[in-house]
């Protein structure tokens, strides 16, 4: 699975790239802020939500520290998706946040 750093992600966001970010944290974690444009699919819901995702798109997986998102990414890769994991997760991300 590919990985990217927080700086690489922030550069893509600043360039207004069309990104597909999936945040796999739990509800209480997401309340502390999400990467703008990210969609929230808790880790436990990934298998049931995977059929709703588009295999022609590349997804960037995010969690608190990078482990759960790597697990979700491995599952999605096994289902034929193109996935990149954010190294260090939200603990490494120091960009803009949005609150839902």
From TrEMBL:
SMART domains: RHOD
Cross-referenced Pfam families: Rhodanese
Matches recorded under CDD domains: RHOD (cd00158)
InterPro entries: GlpE_sulfurtransferase (IPR050229), Rhodanese-like_dom (IPR001763), Rhodanese-like_dom_sf (IPR036873)
Superkingdom of the source species: Bacteria
Residue ranges of every copy of the Rhodanese domain listed in the record: 15-99
Protein name (record): Rhodanese domain protein
């Amino acid at each position: 699975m590919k990985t990217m750093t927080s700086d690489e992600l922030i550069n893509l966001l600043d360039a207004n790239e069309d990104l597909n970010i999936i945040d796999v944290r739990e509800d209480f974690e997401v309340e502390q802020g999400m990467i703008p444009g990210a969609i929230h699919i808790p880790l436990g819901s990934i298998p049931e939500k995977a059929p709703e995702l588009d295999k022609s798109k590349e997804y960037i997986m995010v969690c608190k520290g990078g482990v759960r998102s790597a697990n979700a990414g491995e599952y999605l890769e096994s289902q034929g998706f193109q996935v990149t994991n954010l190294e260090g997760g939200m603990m490494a991300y120091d960009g803009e946040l949005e609150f839902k």
